[in-house]
# Entry
Amino acid sequence: MVFSFLDEKVKLRPFEAQDAPHLEQYLNHPAISGRRYLPWKYPETAPLSMEVVNQIINDWQAFEQGFHLAVISSPADRIVGHVNVDWGWDAHCPSVSLVISPEYQRQRFGSSTLNIVLHYLFSETPAHTVGSEWVADWNEPAKRFLLKNGFTLNGTIRWAGMHGGKPFDMHAADILRREWQTRPGGEHAAGG
Amino acid sequence: MPLEGEIVRLREERASDLHFLQALRNDLDTQAWSKALPPDYTLEMYQKRFQGREFSYDRTDGRFIIELKETEEVAGTILYSNLVSRWEATIGIMVAKPFWGKGVAQEAQEILLRFLFEELGLRVVRLWTHSGNPHAIQLAERAGFQIALRQREAIFKAGQLYDNIVMDLLRPEYYARHPELTDRLPGFQVVEQATGSE
# Structure
């Protein structure tokens, strides 16, 4: 059986060059500043030109130790965000980050996407534990989102950077395979 | 400021150190991460890495040899990486087994921390280790590091699962432990963003 990167709410597919205008629009939205989850060489806060957004798409397409996919709403077929999976450090413990465009938040696109990605990692890869990417302490919605989806906060690195004139901290969270398997839908993940 | 203490000095890597570094890397007891396996690193690999370092003022890492002052024996290696200018870096250390338990790692770590806070003006220094390496955790705690994060069962080494651990040391904490030093960098005051309206 081939794994499907879709459910009734979203479809995940690679970015294409023609997606650049949509991506540029929401990456430059002030509400996304500081939580764009782009490759390290790109700024998390400064405005991004269309040229840079095209480079980001190229980098995502060339990435080999995981994937970067566009989140497409169903049935409207609009780009509503992006999801990154990286197992470059260790396939045992990949990391996941997820961005939903502000206008599409709180409509379950994020939960659907995370569910698909976790299902993929725990059923199609040797992942034993999946970590979240860092979540800034001022990003309360992201923290709530992770907890709601079965993740456990596992610590806080201090002074991750500057925000609002002062240092801010970053949280991380993880979910173990056995925890995922006790969640609704998780029992279908292979292995044990 | 010379990078030296009472028993060790930190100096640049030299071509004559490469055999030592190769042996250190190929010893399963002195490298912490499965990522670094298999232990089949050749001298040629190390020569290539050594020769690949180019002159630059924009490097984001620094690699040092730990040398005993008295005998000039090479005891280990210590580095910082992921440098974010004037903000943070991550450190790592490997000491050869004959020099374990002799204060070499602790002094080398203190020398590097002093360099990072006093010369590079960093605000925070981090390190990564795992729960199967209690000596590394104790070494870091002796310098004031705190465990910041514990990613559960994320490390597999020597047939066991361990927690991945991140530790950090803030600039004010470092200076509080070193009353002989004075921190002359200004702290942070909240700055309101200008709205642009008249």
Observations:
- The first strand of chain B starts at residue 8 and ends at 12.
- Strands of chain B lie at 8-12, 62-68, 74-84, 88-95, 124-130, 146-157, 160-170.
- The interface with chain A takes residues 34-35, 87-88, 123-124, 126, 147-156, 161, 164, 166, 168, 170, 188-192 of chain B (CB under 8 Å).
